[in-house]
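Researcher: I've got a protein sequence and the SMILES for NAP. Could you write out the 3D structure of the bound complex as structure tokens? I'd like something to compare against our soaking experiments later this week.
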Amino acid sequence: MTIQKTYNWAILGCGKIAKRFATDLQLLPNAKLYGAASRDLSKAENFASELNFEKAFGSYEEMIADPAVDIIYIATPHSHHLEHSLLCLKAKKAVLCEKAFAINTKEVEQMIQASKENNTFLMEAFWTRFNPSFLKVLDIIKSKELGALQHVKCDFKFFATFDEHHRIFNKNLGGGSLLDIGIYPVFTALMTLGVPDEITIDVELGKTGIDENIEMLFKYKNGNSANLASGFKCNAFNDSEFYFTEGSVRISRELQVPLRIGKKGKFTEIHCEHGKGLGYQNEAAHVMDCLDQGLTESPMLPLSFSLDLIKTLDRIRKLANIEYPNHDL
Ligand SMILES: NC(=O)c1ccc[n+]([C@@H]2O[C@H](COP(=O)([O-])OP(=O)(O)OC[C@H]3O[C@@H](n4cnc5c(N)ncnc54)[C@H](OP(=O)(O)O)[C@@H]3O)[C@@H](O)[C@H]2O)c1
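Model: Sure. Here is the predicted complex with NAP in place.
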């Protein structure tokens, strides 16, 4: 595709993922690293100088008010995604907002409404949707070369030392494994098998009331199923496996690990081209492609999908009794 425009990107919240995302943004010729905004000006200045952003802002509002800003990447905790995306959308800034898109369905609905009312682009920053290995899996499902997909097995677990103040253990910041990392297995099942008819779960709530481990079983009326899990108590391989009537496929979260296909007792490996980045450059490039076409939502990751995703997370949270103050289901 020919490049039509260079876009001025700004970062809202200079935390851990913002740094990784901005590193990948540097790879895109049509992305200009324009602004970094933090609640603390010196933090924004350090971030901007380390990652070569042109301007640093000591408040989110100041950055949003800058007419030169085209696209804002929201990288605050999920508890703040609604508030921050509404600020951006009302100022008619295109928004790429980290997952989980918000804490619950009501909040995501408000974000979608603001996008429509302001005729302004909004997309959930779900980088795995644009991961070449995952795209290959979607191709295999569509081509039926391994027959029909019947089962998905996917987990995301890492060991985290308990710290009640850290975002992932803190209820006030939307902590818990489901919204932080369990969202990836749930996303994978929804993208490949669809919204489940029945969900059963087994959850372990920790000292701060957040889910430290959750196992989920999705069942579908057509007999399909998915085994999904997330947690902070141990390290898993974090692979996704797809079982078909005539074979199976395994992909890893690690970009350098090849996709593995098994068919009739034979195994082959496919190296998907991931390019130089950490994987975030693909979602950022897609946002700019959408804006080049004058779109206000992504055809690859439509807002209706993000709504299905948060509705499914709400169903799981109800079963697991995971509650967040000020964010009722
Ligand atoms: N796509 C991925 O691979 C990926 C990976 C990790 C995390 N994430 C998502 O990205 C978001 C941020 O995660 P993170 O790990 O980067 O978190 P983090 O390191 O804690 O950064 C979050 C940033 O949000 C800002 N913030 C605004 N209000 C805050 C508050 N009340 N408390 C704490 N921070 C506040 C802070 O920036 P300032 O101080 O600069 O204002 C902070 O640095 C989460 O939604 C998470 O799910 C995505």
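Model: The domain at 7-128 is CATH 3.40.50.720 (Rossmann fold). The chain has two domains: 7-128, 133-273+309-320.
Researcher: Great, I'll pass this along to the crystallography team.
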